[in-house]
């Protein structure tokens, strides 16, 4: 591993040998739904509470990823995962059922990539063989914690986003041919541009995405063009702001073929979803579903995945604090 | 009857427009907006203006949340007129706020009957 | 990127709230709810012998009952997205705030969940309604006892 300021380069090529993505019933409306392994018909997976449904979703997704890798759950050395619920209880309870070593990770909606980066460092260190990584979110549990009860008639502004019910997990292992591997990563730094509106997360997160993308592209010094740079859940608003920031700074001159945002595309152009999708499950389900499939099919061969997270709490908002954000980037390649 | 229904429609609508401006222009949360309107209803009754407003607009004045402030203040003032300062305290709860009791009752019943569904 | 130079970019690009459209839908929604309230109070006046003044109590209770049905069946949030303040300002909005919180927190049981969280959204309204009534009445009582005002 070569550490060049914030850029981590992985010499041993930690490889994502399998992934699994599950989603709730509403996510059948997603443009990516055909890449999801399982779509539940009940958002609580027929359990009593939303949080139990979230835990079941995580457990199911993890077991499916392990099975698709041709392994048993006991082969996994450590689970790295997290979600948006207080103290990450859904992931904690799923980890209890999976009964494997577990490191909970919280990076809000950027957890999908932060868990992958951490897993890559563990694989590179050669201290573990197989790492299970990923994140998830459940719409009802998150909405009632951060905003309002589900049935409350609050009016979402055009900048509002919809938290998805979805989970994406993968198995990371030592180098294997013909599979996507982690080439490098940039760990994000907290960026706070003093945004205060919790109904406009995109504007709050865009500067963090810009900071991480700029850092990674500047320090990578690699002339091979990126097929894709995809942010996690900036939504239509945040993505437009990111493009403006990049245009102003001249960053668009870097060799990147396409910029996309998972949240902005997730539900297509349906206006009831306002600015798009968000949640820890948004980036996880898109990155480890359709994007992973595109890498396997070699439709794209070099991508930078930049998951974004808003590091606020319901309390910090009530106390009048601003919304600090973070973005983590991981570069996936396939030969 | 038709006329008073139309007046209720227009007045109720206009009160809601004021609320919408507080949402969108002043960027207040629903809790801040409703609390402000309740206080407005209370103050208007202090000036003796809310009862004539109800006479004119009917449901256009009793249905918006400001009427809570009015009922509570009205009860307090009625008792204060009879019993002085002590009446201020005892009177507030004499005029029942049927809205609050109904919300509590139907809240418990609703919790017994219903489950939330995350559809859009 | 500092906050001062970032805010103008947000103001330029982030979609603005459609204030005029929201005001029109609020007017329509709030107006219809109040008109329905007016018709319901007529029912109480003609069929149950309430007067114009006393009809407001059962009318409000009936409106909150309707709000419970709409909330429970997942319809009030659609009215809320369309009407904004037009659904939040009438007493049905207060009912929706209380009832939606009660339904949501059933998972924590009826005492701690439903009972403890019912007024999460609507509590401020009751608190400041009561407090304001006290202040206004106290103020007026003092002014009357000083001879500055009279009970009207």
Q: Multimeric state of these chains?
A: heterotrimer
The outline of chain B comes out as globular
Instruction: Output the helix-strand order of chain A.
Output: EEEEHEHEHEHEEEHEHEHEHEHE
Largest sheet descriptor of chain B: none
- Protein chains sharing the most extensive interface: B-C, 83 and 84 residues
Number of helices of chain A: 9
The strands making up the biggest β-sheet of chain A line up spatially as 1-2-10-15-14-11-12
Order of helices and strands of chain B: HHHHHHH
Mean pLDDT of chain A: 94
Task: Give the biggest beta sheet of chain A.
Answer: 7 strands, mixed
- What's the end-to-end separation of chain B, in Å? 38 Å
Question: Uncertain spans of chain A, ≥5 residues at pLDDT below 50?
Answer: none
**SS strand fraction of chain A:** 15-25%
Low-confidence stretches of chain B: none
Fold and architecture overview:
The complex is a heterotrimer of chains A (335), B (120) and C (152). With 335 residues, chain A is α/β, with parallel strands linked by helices. Helices cover 34% and strands 22% of the residues of chain A. Chain A has helices at 50-68, 89-98, 111-124, 139-146, 201-220, 235-249, 262-266, 280-296, 314-318; strands at 2-4, 7-9, 15-23, 38-39, 78-82, 102-104, 131-137, 162-163, 166-173, 181-186, 228-231, 259-261, 277-278, 302-310, 325-333. In chain A, strands 1-2-10-15-14-11-12 form a 7-stranded mixed sheet, sandwiched between helices. In chain A, strands 4-3-9-7-5-6 form a 6-stranded mixed sheet, sandwiched between helices. In chain A, α2 (89-98) links the parallel β5 and β6. The two termini of chain A are 20 Å apart. The model of chain A has no long low-confidence stretch (mean pLDDT 94). Chain B is mostly helical. Chain C has 152 residues and is mainly alpha-helical. The N and C termini of chain C lie far apart (61 Å). Classes of the chains: A alpha/beta (335), B mainly alpha (120), C mainly alpha (152). Chains B and C meet through α1, α2, α4, α5 and α6 of B and α2, α3, α5, α6 and α8 of C.
């Amino acid at each position: 591993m070569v550490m060049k300021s914030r850029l981590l380069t992985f010499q041993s090529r930690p490889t994502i040998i399998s992934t699994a993505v599950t989603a709730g019933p509403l996510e059948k409306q997603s443009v990516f739904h055909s890449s999801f392994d399982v779509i539940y018909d009940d958002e609580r997976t027929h359990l009593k509470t939303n949080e139990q449904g979230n835990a079941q979703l995580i457990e199911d997704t993890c077991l499916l990823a392990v099975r698709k890798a041709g392994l048993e759950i006991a082969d996994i050395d450590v689970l790295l995962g997290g979600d948006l619920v207080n103290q990450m209880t859904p992931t904690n309870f799923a980890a209890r059922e999976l009964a494997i070593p577990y490191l909970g990770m919280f990076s809000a909606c950027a957890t999908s990539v932060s868990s992958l980066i951490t897993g890559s460092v563990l694989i590179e260190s050669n201290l573990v063989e197989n790492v299970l990584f990923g994140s998830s979110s459940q719409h009802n549990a998150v909405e009632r914690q951060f905003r309002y009860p589900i049935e409350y008639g609050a009016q979402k502004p055009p900048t509002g986003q919809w938290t998805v019910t979805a989970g994406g997990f993968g198995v990371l292992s030592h180098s294997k041919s013909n599979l996507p591997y982690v080439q490098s990563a940039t760990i994000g730094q907290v960026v706070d541009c003093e945004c205060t509106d919790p109904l406009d997360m995109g504007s709050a997160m865009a500067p963090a995405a810009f900071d991480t993308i700029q850092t990674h592209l500047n320090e990578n010094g690699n002339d091979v063009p990126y097929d894709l740079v995809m942010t996690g859940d900036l939504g239509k608003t945040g993505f437009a702001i990111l493009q403006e920031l990049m245009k102003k700074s001249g960053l668009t001159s870097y060799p990147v073929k396409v910029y996309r945002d998972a949240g902005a595309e997730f539900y297509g152009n349906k206006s009831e979803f306002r600015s798009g999708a968000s949640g820890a499950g948004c980036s996880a389900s898109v990155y480890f579903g359709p994007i992973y499939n595109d890498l396997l099919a070699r439709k794209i061969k070099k991508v930078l995945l930049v998951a974004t997270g808003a590091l606020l709490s319901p309390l910090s908002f009530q106390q009048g604090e601003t919304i600090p954000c973070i973005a983590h980037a991981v570069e996936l390649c396939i030969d | 009857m038709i006329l008073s229904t139309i007046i209720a429609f227009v007045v109720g609508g206009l009160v809601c427009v004021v609320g919408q401006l507080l949402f969108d222009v002043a960027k207040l949360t629903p809790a801040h907006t409703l609390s402000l309107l309740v206080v407005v209803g209370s103050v208007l009754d202090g000036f003796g203006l809310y009862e004539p407003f109800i006479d004119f607009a009917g449901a256009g004045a009793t249905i918006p949340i400001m009427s809570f402030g009015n009922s509570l203040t009205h009860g307090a003032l009625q008792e204060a007129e009879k019993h002085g300062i002590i009446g201020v305290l005892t009177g507030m709860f004499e005029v029942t706020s049927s809205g609050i009791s109904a919300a509590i009752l139907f809240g418990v019943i609703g919790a017994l009957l219903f489950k939330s569904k995350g559809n859009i | 990127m500092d906050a001062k130079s970032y805010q103008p970019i947000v103001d330029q690009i982030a979609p603005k709230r459609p204030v005029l459209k929201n005001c029109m839908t609020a007017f329509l929604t709030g107006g219809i709810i109040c008109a329905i309230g007016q018709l319901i109070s007529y029912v109480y006046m003609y069929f149950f012998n309430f007067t114009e003044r006393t009809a407001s109590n059962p009318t409000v209770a009936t409106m909150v009952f309707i709000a419970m049905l709409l909330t429970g069946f997942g319809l009030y949030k659609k009215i809320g997205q369309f009407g904004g303040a037009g659904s939040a300002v009438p007493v049905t909005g207060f009912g929706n705030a209380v009832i939606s919180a009660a339904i949501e927190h059933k998972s924590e049981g009826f005492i701690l969940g439903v009972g403890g969280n019912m007024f999460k959204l609507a509590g401020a309204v009751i608190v400041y309604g009561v407090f304001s009534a006290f202040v206004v009445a106290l103020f007026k009582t003092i002014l009357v006892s000083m001879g500055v005002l009279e009970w009207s």
